[in-house]
Amino acid sequence: MTISKELLDELLKGCERPEDLLGDAGLMKELKIKLMERMLGAELTAHLGYEEGKDAPPGQPNRRNGTASKRLKGQDGEVPISVPRDRDGSFEPELIKKGQTRIDGMDDKIIGLYAAGLTVRDIRSHLEDVYGLQVSPDLISRVTDAVLDEVREWQSRALERMYPIVIFDALRVKIRDADSRMVKNKAVYVALGVTRDGVREVLGLWIADNEGAKFWLSVMNELKNRGVQDVLIAVVDGLKGFPEAITAAFPDATVQTCIVHLVRHSLNFCAWKDRKTVAADLRLIYGAPTADQAAAELDAFEEKWAGKYASIAPAWRRAWQEVIPFFAFDPAIRKIIYTTNAIESLNRVIRKSIKTRGSFPTEEAATKLIFLAIRNFEKGGRNVREWFAARNQFAIMFDERFNA
User: Fold this and answer.
1) Which of 374, 270, 365 is nearest to 313 (CA)?
2) Residue 42 and residue 365: Cα distance in Å, rounded?
3) pTM for this one?
4) Which end of the chain lies in a sparser environment, N or C, as judged by fewer CB atoms within 10 Å?
5) CB-based burial of residue 75 (10 Å sphere; 0-12 exposed, 13-18 middle, 19+ buried)?
6) Furthest-apart CA atoms within the chain: distance in Å
7) TM segments (predicted)?
């Protein structure tokens, strides 16, 4: 629709200063109010079947019944609107629904601020400073609680039949316990799958006090109930009870310890001046062409460093059964498993959102924020780099399971 120059000139008569156009009592705000009221009047006309000022159709008992005042919160502050009414109360406007108190995507603004890690108090201050709106904590909580419905739908959605790689990882988050009212360190577990086409997909998130075989078996069964029939490689960070749970649910899955986490765990025992040398020697282990050569490199590492850092080599030996599957894979697959860029970038997004929070009042509050962080993560690039070479290797190594 094109607005004529003549109409614009007529509207702008008397606008001599910026505030005459954009101020709280300016033309833009007034025009917005008048247009909304005009549209509401048109909706009532369609509902009643006759124009304002004209007679109602024969047999039409319902009539116009004045207006009701409503104040809507929007990016222009509070906007007063006169909403037309009918006598029998059957009019249900679409533009501004009954009970609606916000316009201009204010809910999206609140959720966006919440996703950025702002507390309820921070959001209230921001809305008042920027938009001149005084919003109650209860309203903000109601808006963000609506995210929980989306979380439940997301957490129960159907999944792919097969995932070549699923990476499981854990973050520690401080959450107030509902029973004791004490703040506890709870683990947030995230499962990140890679589809047959090399697309990263967060399969779910779970919050638990303690990890263990029973907990992980419930997670595996949930994934099965949502449609997952096979996992080719499950990458884990030494999660307690996980190998038993994954093989109970997916007996053909290869369980692989995350090499990056194992290296980082090892370097935690090192003095700063030795880290570079120790890291280079560890690279000889996981960079070996075969499992036998890797075992020989581990022996050499232990002989060199046992006197100074006696706990590193035993940590690798304890995890060895979940390390050696790594050496059966082509470098194209090894690179994806080793670097775990996908889960690392996801964790960065989550940590960025939660770093401003000392603790969360409930598990639901933590779930809301982490889910919003995951949603932001998935808006970015989701394709695994250099997947084509890895896909060819999967197709050969796992044949029918990959191609089914």
Assistant:
1) 270
2) 42
3) 0.68
4) N
5) middle
6) 102
7) none
